[in-house]
Design a protein that fits this description.
The complex is a heterodimer. In chain A, 33% of the residues lie in helices and 24% in strands. Chain A is built from 13 helices and 16 strands. Chain A has helices at residues 41-48, 71-76, 93-97, 99-103, 108-121, 138-150, 168-185, 196-202, 221-226, 231-237, 241-244, 316-325, 346-360, and strands at 2-10, 16-25, 30-34, 56-61, 64-65, 78-82, 156-160, 188-193, 205-210, 214-219, 261-263, 275-278, 284-288, 309-311, 330-334, 340-345. In chain A, helix 5 (108-121) crosses helix 6 and helix 12 runs antiparallel to helix 13 (346-360). The radius of gyration of chain A is 25 Å and the shape is globular. By secondary structure, chain B is mainly α. Chain B has a domain at 41-167 and 201-245: Orthogonal Bundle (MetI-like fold), CATH 1.10.3720.10. Chain B contains eleven helices and no strands. Chain B has helices spanning 2-11, 22-54, 58-70, 73-84, 88-112, 116-125, 129-159, 172-180, 184-212, 215-220, 233-238. Classes of the chains: A alpha/beta, B mainly alpha. The A-B interface holds A 49, 51, 71-77, 80, 82-92, 99-100, 103, 132-135, 145, 148, 158 and B 115, 117-118, 120-128, 131, 136, 139-140, 214-217, 219-220, 224-225, 227. Chain B: The chain crosses the membrane at residues 30-52, 67-84, 91-111, 184-205.
Chain lengths: 361, 249
């Protein structure tokens, strides 16, 4: 658990970076600090491991005042991940990961074998340990950065915009990876970002900061989107917050309907209306438009590409997106193996959303 | 014609023996260079590390370094000779003064050029200030630091000739003598020898650089990561960093 008690940071030039911050980060959760630049989110994070010392106030990590601990000793017990990873270019990946264990006085052999375990944990092949940071992609470097921070198994992990320098697709992969790791490791994680989408995606609690280092709202992501505390937060979480908040409504209430299917590579029987083309494992391949005549086995070239897919039991945002992006207007639901379960229409999804609103009263 | 004379002078066995022979002069020349580069390193490397690491006094350092560079070496040797009398000291001091700025600039720029994110991570991992310097900043500063050493060495090898003005048997001797008696063969021959010594030393240092600079840095083709700090670029430019000082990837 990390507690900020009336923490203020005023820099030498008089700027107030953090203004009387009171906030408790609960143990074993991912808490995201989010806000525009200059809102004090990074300063707040960096005060936890004393990269910056507060002007006044107290910060407690697991009940202990951080100012009572010598900075290097404090930092060795707290994982630290930064933007662009900050890997040591002159050391191999394995030695980078072994940094903190070696600082703690572990033997070289023990530190290296621990580092190898960590590489596996973050999903990197063991032979990558012999490479140098310059030989890795941005996403791989960031994974190594996470492994390095976890090497000595610290209870607290500080992550300062760790994924903002990688492209969106890689970023999403890293976010999923972090959530998977957290389910396994149960760390107390403080995560700083300026991206509200990232914040609501990975945060169990989100602290929104405004300029001048003032905490504007500290809440669960669903609450933040549904009930912003003021105009600043409402504006910051954005125009799409209504749509985004669907991420927190589960899709189990959506009735999945049957859909006529055709199989790629087999003869197509007569029929009308949109028909979903699947392969032999029942994975969707695309849509066969109404009135298409097919001679012989069905080729993929006559199909219209399908929309996004959603998994049964996931959020209703995915179901809505699947319906809206499908050429037939029918959103395709799949099971965890990717096989077609059925379809939904946008109207059905809306009905479920409306129904939930009424039942909430 | 001149080159034939120079060649004749260079292959004349009489020039290769005795206490004023070419081997002795090369030896003396090298000793002065070695003394000057070692002496300058002893001053400039710790100073550059300190200023680069703490960030204190950088402006003063660059200004001072450039002021030193503006001193004419020959004038300095003569001046020191006049006030201190003959001997090794004045020449060595003048050469050290000449060698300090490039080593200082290389060391300072090398440390300053280490990716700020890398230093931040090192501190955040729990390294002490000294550990950050020795384990992270210094290894990453090596390409530019050694570049500064090579630059200083080249300058010192070329300039150690001035020691001949005050009676020391360096490779400057044939230049002075040759000029005095209009023996251009000797003059050019001496110049060729100095150039050969400079090239040989630079190759030696290049080899040393290859052995010392960590492999991870040579892979990148540049001293640090993809996002380098821009603030030291100006310094490197004003400090006339040798283009040979880069990495050898």
């Amino acid at each position: 658990m990390i507690e900020f008690r009336a923490v203020t940071k005023r820099f030498d030039d008089g700027t107030i970076a953090v203004n009387s911050l009171d906030l408790t980060v609960e143990a074993g959760t991912i808490t995201v600090f989010v806000g525009p630049s200059g809102c004090g989110k990074t300063t707040s994070l960096r005060m936890v491991n004393r990269m910056i010392d507060p002007t006044s106030g107290t910060i407690l990590v697991d009940g202990k005042d951080v100012l009572s601990v010598d900075p290097p000793e404090l930092r060795r017990g707290i994982g630290y991940v930064i933007q662009q990873a900050g890997l040591f270019p002159h050391r191999t990946v394995l030695d980078n990961v072994a940094t903190v264990p070696l600082l703690l006085g572990w033997s070289k052999a023990k530190a290296r074998s621990r580092a190898a375990e960590l590489l596996e944990l973050v999903g990197l092949p063991a032979e990558m340990g012999k490479r140098y940071p310059a030989q890795l992609s941005g996403g791989q470097q960031q994974r190594v950065g996470v492994a390095r921070a976890l090497a000595a198994d610290p209870p607290v992990l500080l992550m300062d915009e760790p994924f903002s320098a990688v492209d969106p697709v890689v970023r999403e992969g890293l976010q999923d990876e972090l959530l998977r790791l957290q389910a396994e490791l149960d760390k107390t994680i403080v995560f700083v970002t300026h991206d509200i989408d990232e914040a609501v995606r990975i945060g169990e609690k989100v602290a929104v900061f405004r300029e001048g280092g003032v905490l504007a709202q500290y809440d669960k992501p669903s609450e933040l989107l549904a009930r912003p505390a003021d105009d600043f937060v409402a504006h910051f979480v954005g125009k799409d917050r209504g749509y985004r908040s669907l991420s927190f409504v589960d899709a189990s209430g959506v009735e999945v309907g049957a859909v006529p299917t055709v199989v790629v590579g087999e003869a197509v029987t007569a029929g009308d209306g949109w028909r979903l083309a699947v392969d032999e494992r029942k994975h969707p391949r695309g849509w066969l438009p109404p009135g298409t005549t097919v001679d012989g086995p069905l080729a993929e070239s006559v199909l219209k590409p399908g929309g996004s897919l959603f998994e049964v039991g996931q959020s209703i945002r995915g179901a809505m997106d699947a319906a809206l992006s499908s050429p037939s207007g029918l959103g395709v639901a799949v099971d965890p193996e990717g096989a077609v379960v059925g379809v939904v229409t946008a109207t059905q999804v809306l009905a479920v959303i409306e129904g939930q609103r009424e039942s909430r009263g | 014609m001149i080159f034939a004379d120079a060649f004749a002078w260079l292959v004349d066995p009489a020039n290769w023996s005795g206490s004023k022979g070419i081997p002795v002069r090369i030896g003396v020349h090298l000793l002065y260079c070695l003394g000057a580069v070692l002496g300058a390193s002893a001053i400039a490397v710790p100073l550059g590390l300190f200023v680069g690491h703490t960030g204190r006094g950088g402006t003063f350092l660059v200004g001072g370094g450039n002021a030193l560079r503006a001193l004419p070496t020959l004038g300095l040797v003569t001046f020191l000779y006049l006030i201190a009398g003959g001997g090794t000291g004045p020449v060595l001091i003048a050469l050290i003064v000449l060698a300090v700025p490039p080593i200082l600039a290389g060391t300072y720029a090398g440390i300053q050029d280490v990716d700020r994110g890398v230093v931040d991570a090192a501190r955040g991992m729990g390294m002490t200030s000294g550990q950050v310097l020795w384990r992270v900043e210094l290894p990453n500063a090596l390409p530019l630091l050694i570049g500064g050493l090579r630059n200083a060495t080249l300058q010192v090898v070329a300039t150690a000739s001035v020691a001949a003005y005050v009676g020391i048997e360096t490779l400057g001797r044939p230049l002075l003598d040759g000029l005095r008696v209009l023996d251009y063969g000797q003059f050019v021959g001496g110049a060729v020898l100095i150039a050969l010594v400079a090239v040989a030393l630079d190759l030696l240092l290049a080899g040393g650089q290859k052995a010392i600079v960590p492999r991870g840095l040579r892979l990148t083709g540049q001293p640090t990561g993809p996002k380098k700090g821009k603030r030291s670029q100006k310094l490197v430019a004003t400090a006339a960093q040798p283009d040979s000082g880069g990495s050898t990837a």
